[in-house]
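Mods, move this if it's the wrong board.
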Amino acid sequence: MSIWSQSEFRYHFYFFKSIVFETAYSFGCFNSACNPVIYAWRFPDFRRGYRDLICYKLVHVLSCGKY
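Not the wrong board. C-alpha cells:
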C-alpha cells in the first residue's frame, strides 16, 4: 500500500522542485543585487571605480546631451 498514487507523487515532486528552484533563483538575484553594495563598502578601489563611472556618465550626458 503506497502513501500516494503515481499522479499524486508527480504533483508533490514537481511542486517541491518548483519551490526549490524559485528559492534558489531568488537567493541568486538577491546575491547579485547585494554584491555591488558590499564591494563598494569593503573595497576603496571598487568605490573609486563606481565614482569615476558615474561622474564620467554625468559629465558626458551634461556636455553632449546623450550617452
